[in-house]
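Long-time lurker, finally posting.

We've been working with 4-hydroxy-3-methylbut-2-en-1-yl diphosphate synthase (flavodoxin) (Streptomyces alboflavus) and I want a structural starting point before designing mutants. I don't trust myself to interpret raw outputs, so I'm hoping someone here can both generate the structure tokens and explain anything notable. Sequence follows.
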Amino acid sequence: MPRQTPVRRRTRQLRVGDVEVGGDAPVSVQTMTTTNTADVDATLQQIAEVTAAGCDIVRVAVPSQNDADALPTIAAKSPIPVIADIHFQPRYIFQAIDAGCAAVRVNPGNIKKFDDKVAEIAAAATAAGVPVRIGVNAGSIDPRLLAKHGAATPEALVESALWECSLFEQYGFRDIKIAVKHHDPLLVVAANRLLAERCDYPLHLGVTEAGPAFQGAIKSAVAFGILLLEGIGDTIRVSLSAPPVEQVKAGSHILACLGLRPRKLEIVSCPGCGRLQVDIHHLAARVEAAFEGFPHPLRVAVMGCVVNGPGEAREADIGVSSGNGKGQIFVRGKAVATVPESQIVDRLVEEALRLAEDAPTP
Ligand code: SF4
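Top reply, 14 upvotes:
Generated this for you. Predicted structure of 4-hydroxy-3-methylbut-2-en-1-yl diphosphate synthase (flavodoxin):
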């Protein structure tokens, strides 16, 4: 059955370095480094890792002068655009812009007290062609609006974000993308729907403090899945209490499931049941590890018995139907061999490499 790609909401488009965000640009995947930003080597190493995993844009925290001082080298050497994440310190914002950062994350409400630096930031960002990301979550709603709404409701998040935008808009600055985040995925859905009705800025989707990898990936998949299928969302970050590479992989998987990013290698494996004739969890994990980083978009089926095994294995590019210490190997619908269980993984890789020889590397 042909997949239906979601019809995207029309937004303004902006450029974060060489990555377009909004409009008809592909939905991009972001993450944030966890290194001490001032440790340039460690930060660049982590950026290289997330880039290899498919990250489009990376954000680095800038809580100190040493971090701000590291930005020129990081921005120059990073293979993907760098966003400087800054709270409270206007001078770091100017440094980030001068350093060649592709965007800054700043909430003007935080810096309004500094003699109205907002106008200067708007002017500097305009001159450098640097967009600003405004982000509001449950903990950073403007106190006035929190009091007005009584809680971190979707309305409170949206009103707070749009108020932050208005502080820039009064100076004619509209090169903005917005994130409204919450730990509750359904609240994230409601807030972004509301925001999508009220403005045409590109939206950065995120479920904040989503939790450990398993829980956080599910929460993000639920929220992003609903919103992206409605065409809402222009860039995403899966926030997990897990390494940034895992966040990028989760984000890329979510987009691939929605038909918004080409699929990479896909492993179809059965969950196992009382008919199992192999340790399917272990076998699937070994197959996943063996195919880590495989660049061709193959579907590999790993099945645990002969009931559904041959059918699924035939449907995939490469598959195995396991049982009684053996594995029947299928390639593009044809049974090509039966191998001992200990040779299943190697044989699958061998067949995949053979198929890959016939297809150019994507
Ligand atoms: Fe159970 Fe076999 Fe289906 Fe796996 S393929 S879930 S073992 S019936």
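Before you design anything, note these points.
The pocket of iron/sulfur cluster is lined by residues 270-273, 275-276, 303-305, 307-309 (CB under 6 Å).
Residues 265-358 form a domain with the Sulfite Reductase Hemoprotein; domain 1 fold (CATH 3.30.413.10).
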